[in-house]
Amino acid sequence: MSASLDPHAVSHVPPERRRSMVVCGLIGVGVMAAVDEIVFHQILGWHHFYDRSTPSVGLLSDGLLHTAELLALVAGFFLYADLRRRRALGAVHAWAGFFLGLGIFQLFDGIVDHKLLRLHQVRYGVDVTPYDWAWNVTALALLLIGTALAMRAEGGTKTGRAA
Questions:
Q1: How far apart are CA 92 and CA 90, in angstroms?
Q2: What is the pLDDT, as a whole number, of residue 94?
């Protein structure tokens, strides 16, 4: 049977760079949300997603965050599997998207959730300044890694190298 008629044969598809970045960005957001929820909400017990009400509401808000994080991870991994199946994954773009997703979640949480909306703080009963700095500097480091990888990936595609 010729390869063109074989239903199991996958022809070479050029990498879908933008989709690779977005899909893995979604996975990165889900992973960082999971790390935040597992480490800071559950293991350390420093805060809930929403701390401006009763402990029961805080626990409910953690459950909703967990639901959103799982949906992001499941959807992201299904989309990732589709890219892999079709051999359309741009590997460096995917890593760039993953680190950008990690950093975007972390920075959004640190600036919007902690400071603008004041849904919760990193920790209570202590000076939060060093925690805020650590939180947001970590976010910036992740964003810089993602940006450097994205620039490397784009540089590779412009010079004709596969990315």
A1: 6
A2: 97
- Which one, of 134, 112, 128, lies nearest residue 47 by Cα? 128
CA pair distance 55, 63, nearest whole angstrom = 12
| CA–CA gap between residue 34 and residue 47 (Å, rounded) | 14
CA–CA separation, 65 vs 40, rounded Å?
A: 13
Mean pLDDT of 35-54: 93
Question: Which tokens sit at 28?
Answer: 């990165």
Q: Are 103 and 143 in contact (CB under 8 A)?
A: yes
> Quick check: 41 and 47 in contact, CB under 8 A?
yes
Mean pLDDT, range 77-90, rounded to an integer: 97
pLDDT > 70: what percent of the chain?
A: 87
Task: Determine phi and psi for 86, rounding to 5 degrees.
Answer: -85, 0
**Do 97 and 25 touch, CB atoms closer than 8 A?**
yes
